[in-house]
Design a protein that fits this description.
eight-stranded parallel β-sheet; TIM Barrel; 484 residues
């Protein structure tokens, strides 16, 4: 922890349920900023319930949800005490649209409440939530649910989250919040708005804690825009380079590919830290900063600290399936792990990093085209003014019927289903198999060998001890909440 109270280390909010409440709790109770991933938490919640809620954590958290009727209905509809039967598929939620029913919003509220509540339970450490700006439609309900659980920090990237600070201000007062929805082919003078009204859900009237807001940026120009033109207070920046896992910002300028077909990044893609320092807002460096030397470099450059993802992703507490973690760490010890930055995999058009390891099989294997979760769908306006929702990883006929172009479907993969499989919640398929897992990590995955030291498992605290070695800042233990 820095002298002025900011964390030295922010644990990245990774994937779908990779940065789960257990991982965030482990980091927060050690005095740094633990972060839960808010992506697709509504589906995470109902799949945990359908799998029997082993250990009872979800049901324990739901007992504290200030929407008791919603908690009861969730258990009635989705809880399976004995879990699912062999080869039984998970029940699905209706996919998000611009406007959804009250209970659909309440599932999202509940899911984000549960994850943050469990991450914060029983200690006084700080917990953050990471949401993707480009996954627009659930975001307001997600923020409100996290705030009901007293989330401390909201982190958002993968877009320009200029309206989020104002939304946090409004939601803290239980007032209606709005966001502009990105709609392809929508006339500029006719904006389409997402609306969320807390009073429609009757969760209380006492003001909520307004969390700090950290924007995740790849360029100083975006940081400057947000610092000066956001509709509310921006409390910090995470400056993330192209070596970070998951989605990356596309390279600036014309797209060039290396001999493996990966995007080539250059000097123009490096953030100007001098310009960011001049904003007078604390910042953390991410992407390739997962080592003690990198932490020292970051502090020398004026950063409050670093954000680290990949090393935590393979810790015991993370949500990756145990077999995936063990297999990748074995492959890592044998020097057989690589990363492929795929310019086509994501339906969003952003480059997406995929782990290459013998234990994972081939990421290029043929996958069924599907879009039944819909988190990466985008909205488009048809000539008659109707809104349609489409995903380039859906069956071609569906994408074309929604006005998409065939060339946009080439190479696309259903990230939503693949990422759910990576955390042990893969959908059962009609042929008796399970959706193949898709594993993402940063380019620095080989660097976690210094943490693993040939082992097939390690804890989040081992990561912190490694990163803080020689810094003069020991790994701490946070007092239980309410302790003197």
């Amino acid at each position: 922890m820095t002298a002025i109270g900011y964390p030295l280390i922010i644990q990245g909010g990774m994937g779908i349920a990779v940065s789960n409440w257990r991982l965030a709790r482990a980091v927060s109770t050690a005095g740094e900023l633990g972060v839960v991933s808010g992506t697709a938490l509504d589906t995470v919640l109902i799949r945990r319930l359908q799998d029997g809620d082993v250990g009872g954590a979800v049901r324990r958290a739901l007992e504290h949800l200030p929407l008791p009727d919603v908690a009861a209905e969730l258990l009635r509809k989705y809880f399976r005490p004995e879990g699912r039967g062999p080869d039984e598929p998970y029940r699905l939620l209706p996919m998000y649209r611009r406007a959804v029913g009250s209970f659909r919003e309440q599932i999202t509220i509940a899911a984000n409440f549960v994850e943050v509540f469990l991450a914060k339970e029983g200690h006084g450490g700080r917990v953050g939530i990471n949401l993707l700006t480009k996954v627009q439609m659930p975001n307001l309900a997600s923020l409100y649910g996290a705030m009901l659980a007293r989330v401390d920090v909201v982190l958002m990237g993968a877009g320009i989250p200029r309206e989020i600070p104002g939304a946090l201000d409004a939601l803290s007062r239980h007032e209606e919040a709005t966001l502009r929805l990105d709609v392809e082919d929508q006339p500029a003078g006719e904006p389409v708005t997402l609306r969320f009204a807390p009073t429609e859900h009757h969760a209380g009237s006492e003001p909520l804690h307004r969390p700090d807001f950290y924007a995740i940026v790849s360029a100083h120009s975006l940081a400057t825009t947000l610092a000066r033109k956001a509709n509310g207070r921006v409390d910090g920046f995470v400056v993330e380079g192209a070596t970070a896992g998951g989605h990356n910002a596309p390279p600036r300028g014309a797209l060039r590919l290396n001999d493996r077909g990966e995007p080539i990044y250059g000097e123009r893609d490096l953030a100007d830290l001098d310009a960011i320092r001049e904003l007078g807002v604390p910042f953390w460096l991410a992407g390739g900063f997962g080592s003690p030397a990198a932490l020292a470099d970051a502090r020398r450059l004026g950063a409050a600290g670093i954000q680290v993802g990949t090393a935590f992703a393979y810790a015991d507490e993370s949500g990756f399936a145990p077999g995936i973690k063990r297999g990748v760490l074995r492959d890592l010890a044998a020097g057989r792990v690589g990363i492929f930055t795929d310019p086509r995999a994501s339906p969003t058009g952003f480059p997406f990093k995929i782990v290459e390891a013998p234990s994972l099989g081939s990421h290029a294997a043929e996958r069924s085209r599907r879009c039944d979760l819909g988190y990466l769908r985008s909205a488009a306006r048809r000539p008659d003014g109707r809104l349609v929702y489409r995903c380039a990883a859906a069956p071609e006929s569906e994408f074309l019927a929604a006005g998409g172009e065939l060339e946009e479907t080439v190479g696309r993969k259903c990230l939503c289903n693949g990422l759910f499989s990576a955390v042990g919640m893969g959908q059962a398929l009609e042929d008796g198999g399970t959706e193949p897992a898709l594993v993402t990590s940063g380019d620095g995955i080989r660097e976690i060998a210094a943490v693993a030291r040939g082992r097939e498992s390690y804890a989040a605290r081992d990561v912190l001890e490694y990163l803080l070695a020689g810094s003069g800042d020991p790994v701490r233990s946070v007092e239980p909440a309410g302790a003197a």
